[in-house]
Amino acid sequence: MDFSSALTEKNVIVLPTKSVAMGISAMLAFNLEDNQWVQVDKRSSQIPAVTEETRIYTAAVAVEEKIYAIAYGTELWCLNVANPEQSAFVGDTNYTIVDLCYNAADDCLYGVSDTNKLVRIHMETGKGLLVGTMPLETNTIACDANGVFFSNL
């Protein structure tokens, strides 16, 4: 897979990272087709594998030197950005999360569920708390530094 297809393929979760330890400042991606974390760097046409996984992640967000990722729909995992093989199960959200974001304004994770619910997710326990129903049907969520949420319709 090359850089262009990594950004357009539906089988890849792409995360911007700032990991100096990895030697990249571009992106880290999870390739759903091959079950592996890969480095994405626009300066190179190659996408080297970082690690292979036994879990399938369907949503993820980078928070400082950590990656919070959803596996099997409801499980929150915490991974080390520099070495994604170092992972720990955080807890079960009790919701099937289809996308995940970080809100720096309140230092919390948020997810959108398969039933269009906005869920706040505790980063230390994985417990999900229902915030409300999204006003329009969506399967994406993002948040800016001011705590303003965005989604794709």
Describe this structure in words.
With 153 residues, the protein is mainly β. Helices cover 4% and strands 47% of the residues. It has one helix and 14 strands, in the order H-E-E-E-E-E-E-E-E-E-E-E-E-E-E. It has one helix at 3-8; strands spanning 12-16, 27-31, 36-40, 49-52, 57-63, 66-71, 75-80, 87-92, 97-103, 108-113, 117-121, 128-133, 142-143, 149-150. Strands 1-2-3-4 form a four-stranded antiparallel sheet. The chain has a four-stranded antiparallel sheet with strand order 5-6-7-8, with no helix packed on it. A four-stranded antiparallel sheet has the order 9-10-11-12, with no helix packed on it. The model is unreliable at 1-12 and 17-25 (pLDDT under 50).
Tell me the radius of gyration.
15 Å
| Dominant shape | globular
**For the residues shown, what is the average pLDDT?**
77
Structural class: mainly beta
Measured between the Cα atoms of the first and last residue, the distance is 28 Å
Task: Write a compact overview of the structure shown.
By secondary structure, this protein is mainly beta.
Could you give the topology of this structure?
Blueprint: H1 3-8, E1 12-16, E2 27-31, E3 36-40, E4 49-52, E5 57-63, E6 66-71, E7 75-80, E8 87-92, E9 97-103, E10 108-113, E11 117-121, E12 128-133, E13 142-143, E14 149-150
Antiparallel strand pairs: 1-2, 2-3, 3-4, 5-6, 6-7, 7-8, 9-10, 10-11, 11-12, 13-14
